Amino acid sequence: MRERNDIAEEIAQHLEDRYEELRAQGLSHEQASRDAERQVRHLARELNAVGQVVPGPPSRPHDPIASLWGSWGSIWLDFRYACRMLAKRPGFSAVVIVTLALGIGATTAIFSVVDGVMLRPLPFPKIDRILMLRERTIDGRAMSVSWPDFQDWQQQNTVFDHVGVFRPTSVNLTGGDRAERLDATLASSGLFGAMGLQPILGRAFSEAEDRAGTDRVAVISERLWRRRFGGDPSLVGRTIALSGDTYSVIGVMPQGMRFPSRLTDVWLPLGLFVDGMPPRGAHPGLTAVARMKAGTTLERAETEMDTIAQRLAAQYPASNKNTRVIVTPYYEQIVQNIRPALVALTCAVAVVLLIGCANLANLTLSKSEARAREIAVRAALGAARWRVVQQLVVESLVLAAAGGLLGALLAAWAVRAFVASQPASIPRIDLIAVDLRVLAFTGVVSIATALLVGLAPALRASAPDLLTTLREASRGTAGVGARRLRAALVVGEIALALVLLVGAGLMVRSFNRLMAINPGFDPERVVTARLMLPEKTYPDRAGWTRFHRELLRRLGGVAGIEAAAVNSAVPLEGGGSEAPVIKEGDAMPTPDRPAATTLFQTTSPGYFQAMGIPLVRGRAFTERDTADAPPVVIVDETLVRKVFGDVNPIGKRIAFELAGGHGPHAEPRWREVVGVVGHVKHYGLSVEPPFVQLYTPIEQLPTYWQPRGPAMALVVRTTMPARTLADVIRGELAAMDRDVPLYGVRTMDDYLAQSTEQQRLSVMLLGGFGGLALVLAVVGIYGVLSYIVGQRTQEIGIRIALGATRRDVLRLVLGQGLRLTALGLAIGLAASIAASRLIASLLYEVSPRDPATLAALAGLLGAVALAAVAVPALRATHVSPIDALRSE
Amino acid sequence: MQYMKAGKGGMLDRELKKGSAELLILSLVETQPRHGYEISKLIEARSDGALSFRVASLYPLLYRLEKRGWIQGRWLEKAGQRRRRYYRLTAAGADVLASQRSTWRNFAAAINRIAGVEPV
Q1: Using one digit for the tens of pLDDT, what is the confidence trace for B61-96?
Q2: pLDDT tens across A59-104, in order?
Q3: Within 10 Å of residue A397's Cβ, how many Cβ atoms?
Q4: Both A26 and A162 in a single domain?
Q5: Residues sharing a CB contact under 8 Å with residue A803, sequence separation 6 or more, in sequence order
Q6: What pTM was computed for the model?
Q7: Same domain for A190 and A300?
Q8: Which of the pair, A782 or A475, is modelled with greater confidence?
Q9: How far, in Å, CA of A755 to CA of A715, rounded?
Q10: What is the DSSP letter of A705?
Q11: What pLDDT shows up at residue A449?
């Protein structure tokens, strides 16, 4: 079976044989070429006169697939031809496919993350109508919602269909083999309406369950229902034991109800807790969520909430004078932290892909020039221009398909590894996967890549100037147009690579700054875990305190434990309670003259030692700081600075428990400052709210905690691995009370790593992409310079023959390479500065236009490019004039 | 249809040439496979330049002969050389060659007898 392409190749070879023979006989290049041209001209004329000597693609009876496809058969033939051509050049094909696989794979992996986090619809219907409502002070500090304020919002608003309020908590599920701690949420009935989801079984809360005195009922998640209760439909109406109380299950919410967190398994009615709600002005950790009425805009909702807040401020000036409302669309809230990083990464990966495309376009250009003669003969044989373009584009598509396939595999592997590492800073991590959506995206990217890489060279190669092409092809020189296109590709590559390198460099600098931050404690060998005491068994302070003291006493006797303590919060975790703080002699704070706000924690003796927090002055807590002893407090250095200034605070008295709330009638509970400790990064390494810090002894609980203390964190400095330690603690706990679960066992190193996780990920990915871009750009400029030197061998030979020195030649070639590099760097610097806004929000204490980073990376790229240019330049100086002229 | 350009003194009839062109190619690939350029060089050399093929004629003719099943082409790659398409005679082609040879012999003998040309 013969094909048109075979004949073209045979004829092209014939012409070459003829040319070489004529040259061997001593004819000049021009004479020999003229003969070839005459043959081709004749060929074209003859074929036109004769008609189709060589049958065209549409009728191809020998190939069943081609004839089956009718006029599409030509693509099938091109496909087979392309596969053969690529198999014939395995080196070229491998380079192209690997470059494409890296580019497309990285793009696919990042897209799958973007898709899982930002694009995939959340399961809540009309999610754009769901708003999160919080309160804030007039100067912008966010607060949780005051219960009476929420009730007024509920009554006064006209823009919401549903509005609910919730507070995350956790419960111990008992009654099985062992106690299990579950994420739970106190929720008012409006919550389910606001999210727009119906239970799959039973019912959600009704308004009756928002009021005090409601029955103990619970709604559970589908996941818990299946996992723990085997999906038994008769569970509704039965009771379960939560934290020592009996609750009847009234409903099961569908899988999609991952609210307020994806781990929430239990919803409890708010009505059970409304009796304990503090008065207006206190903000007990509530958040409100609302569903806007159809046709309501975000602006209108904001305006109305602002109106209501101002009305309340006028009505209750003592508590609400400075209180306003923050309205955030729910979707925004989910993605707002991660979006800048994802946008930057998406841009970075697109840049890598573009650089890869530029390289491949260059390669294809070189190849298509090498094949120019074959293409010209095919054109002479009557092939239409579009057929030639089709052939070349099909070849690119075959390459891109192979690259895309390999890239998809790479991406699937990378994404699986990424998800398995469970990065906590990525929301909706469980939705990230390489699936059909992502593969469809990969397909589109691959095809776009193929067109980008293949079309420009194909159009150029198929230029109808047959004679010029033949002449050039036989001489092995490229046209001016191709040379310009090539130069432009290299300049673009260098510019893009610089932008990416600068981005990566800034991230690295920022990350280094972040890692250099002193967290205020010594994380080494410190393990923390959470304890939750059931309220039923430990209803008051006495039992609560006794339990912790006994646990610490038992742990103190374990070999391998250097220090053990409990504290009401874990540094870097961010949770905590805040209150205004004053020193003796200060006036009580009012909304117009607010006091400093302090984070307060309660801690057992030995906490500072266990956590490695330095004691700067005075003493730590001891066993003698009991409930009957005089009330004492330990403060941090920021509190001293802010409240006392230069005065030595030891022995002075402060108060943060202002009984009776704000205002002149409040009655402060004074505590004597006995020690000063270092400041701890409580809210995260790079976040620093303007709060000072203080600690109370565990037996002198702040009055805010009634009737007993909060869930405590166990802090142990140990030589044991965390898992072994957890088993030891669980053993001690089981000996004391089987119903107290231990959870959240983590090392402080782990907390530190997590607080920088997003930055670490961004640094690793951007750094990787930057390195990839650097390599690709260098390969690109090396390839182009080598090619150009190859092209100019003859010219260089003549120059040397005419007396040019090696240095002149070096200068000639280096100059050409450096001009391209310099132009690329200049454009890249401008683009980096223009793109700096994109990365600014990801940086910590580094300016996105940091001149040192810009200069260093431009220098690095320039130096590497110089090295890449030097190789072909040095080669050029070794051109022998005789060989060069003969090779013509 | 013109397959061969007339060399010096060669004034062959079209039909004659058509038949003879096929005969020439079949003869040349009879003993060993040859590629297109080799075939054209051999025709030119063995006819002392009296006969030569144009590119435009040779390859379509090879194509047609192959399509009829008289010759078979195969791409072969030899070390250090570009790949070439070599043609060999098939069994069917050998039959055709035999019959064309005898036709030509009879034809040439008849011409010789009439024209009084000495047998070569």
Answers
A1: 888 888 889 999 888 877 767 778 899 999 999 998
A2: 334 555 555 555 566 778 788 888 887 888 787 788 788 888 888 8
A3: 22
A4: no
A5: none
A6: 0.66
A7: yes
A8: A782
A9: 18
A10: S
A11: 80
Residues of A with a Cβ under 8 Å from any B Cβ are 2, 6-7, 9-11, 13-15, 17-18, 39-40, 42-43, 46-47, 50, 53-54
String of b and e for A95-125 (b: at least 16 CB within 10 Å)?
Answer: bbbebbbbbbbbbbbbbbbbbbbbeeebebe
In a mutational test of the B interface, the residue from A2, A47, A62, A63 whose CB has the highest number of chain B CBs within 10 Å is: A2
B4-113 CATH, one of 1.10.8.60, 3.40.50.720, 1.10.560.10, 1.10.10.10: 1.10.10.10
Chain B residues in contact with A10 by the CB 8 A cut-off are 35-36, 59, 85
Domain boundaries, chain B: 4-113
A192 located within any domain:
yes
**Among the three residues A704, A736, A768, which one is the final residue of a domain in this structure?**
A736
Q: Is residue A714 assigned to a domain?
A: yes
User: A610-642, pLDDT tens digit by residue?
Assistant: 999 999 999 999 999 999 999 999 999 999 999
Question: Does the beta carbon of B36 lie under 8 angstroms from any beta carbon of chain A?
Answer: yes
A8 and A146: one domain? no
How would you write A580-601 as a 3-class SS string? Answer: EEEECCCCCCCCCCCCEEEEEE
Bridge partners of A694, per DSSP, are A600, A635
Interface test with A, best of B59, B72, B83 (most A CBs within 10 A): B59
Where helices occur in B29-90 by DSSP H, the ranges are: 36-46, 55-68
Query: Residues of A with CB below 8 A from B73's CB?
Result: 2, 6
Contact A42 B84 (CB under 8 A): no
> Residue type at A279?
P
Tens digit of each residue's pLDDT (9 = 90 or more) over A506-538: 989 988 888 888 999 999 999 999 888 887 888
pLDDT, tens digit, 9 for 90 and up, residues A18-54: 888 888 888 887 787 777 777 766 666 555 443 333 3
Q: What ipTM did this prediction achieve?
A: 0.79
Residue A252 has a pLDDT of: 95
Q: Which of A676, A702, A736 is the last residue of a domain?
A: A736
A438-456: burial string, b at 16+ Cβ within 10 Å, e else: bbebbbebbeebbbbbbbb
Q: Domain check: are A155 and A19 in the same one?
A: no
CA distance A39 to chain B (A): 7
Q: What percent of chain A has pLDDT over 70?
A: 87
Domain membership of residue A47 as a residue range: 1-55
Quote the number of domains for chain A: 3
A719 or A139: whose pLDDT is higher?
Answer: A719
Min Cα distance B9 → chain A (Å) is: 22
Residue A473: the pLDDT is 44
